[in-house]
Amino acid sequence: MNTSTAPRIAIIGAGPGGLTCARILQRHGITATVHEQDGSRTARNQGGTLDMHPDSGQNALREAGLLKEFLALARPEGQQIRLVGRDARVLFDAVPPEADTENGNPEIDRGQLRDLLLNSLEPDTVHWDHKLAHVEPLNGGAHRLHFTDGTTTEADLVIGADGAWSKVRRLLSDATPVYTGVTFVETGLDNADTRHTALASLTGDGTMMALDNNQGFVAQRNSHQHIRVYIGMRTDEDWYQKAGLDLTHTAAVREALLKEFTGWSRDLLGFITDTDTRYINRPLYALPVPHTWPHTPGLTLLGDAAHLMSPFSGMGANLAMLDGADLARALINNTVIDDAVRAYENLLLPRSREAAEGAAEGVASAFAPDSATQALAHMSQNH
Hints:
The structure is a single chain. The protein has 13 helices and 17 strands. The strands form four sheets. A seven-stranded mixed sheet has the order 5-4-13-14-15-12-16, with helices on both faces. Strands 7-2-1-11-17 form a five-stranded parallel sheet, covered by helices on one side. The protein is globular, with a radius of gyration of 21 Å. It has two domains: about 5-80 and about 100-175 and about 290-365, FAD/NAD(P)-binding domain, CATH 3.50.50; about 180-285, D-Amino Acid Oxidase, Chain A, domain 2, CATH 3.30.9.30. With about 375 residues, the chain is an alpha/beta fold. Helix 2 runs parallel beside helix 11 (about 315-335).
């Protein structure tokens, strides 16, 4: 791209994909502005842990010049995957080889990854507390961005990296996320190795899953002795409202969850009874598969805005970062923005369809009547 023309590039959303795109563009002398609705980088918890795959997330970090820094933060031991039965008996346990960092999928906390990317950007790249209200098309593929604080800006390319409920996507597609039928109730254990030794031992160093008959527990190691817990159920989207529950009433939610998991081992029920954090309801949504859109000058999507899928693909953040890297590379290599976006979308759409199909199959098999059998077969085949 001829940077003397100073293309105006606006990235909506400061998630891993949008930040990766901005970082790679800056390394090649192209300015991009990131608009983020969070008030600051510390406005909210960034969530759990991510495994970075060599051919996607790690590849994007390499192009961003941040792979060395990532490897210093990553936890290769976090690749351990363990499956237990509803009786808490270990059915499968895959422990990664020691020091297998570059060849495997080492874990990193989402917050650490975001800070790594944010710290690599030039000052004032991210405009915090900038919530997008709507996008107004102008002539020649340009767009005017309207923010809820009353400010506006114009861009030659608007990149929708604004997640599941993307406002940018509304200009390209009528698709909206659909409930998968599965809800996670998130909670957590603090200082797990000292305060919750039995649950920490059951979890191991990575991810522990207990899946059976449309229900399950997923316990996931984070840094600083924190274990993030997801209590999963195939249930109605408004299950807690139908049960008359107020999610802020911890004791009542705990009692309701214990009733849902009647017959499960007491060892596993500790992930409900012994938690240190509140319960957060997280229904899982996905965009229709395939999700495509007509090429539109001046607009494109990446990450969840383009291909929201269930976390059972293990690909969400990896694909978002690969999207960001591929879009940046296309903009660097093409002198015309529209040609760059076309080239990028020709890569994005086929691979996102494949990943989304796999994610849909993953959540369907993980929360099925015979989910324990399916999970064991899958892990035995793939580890």
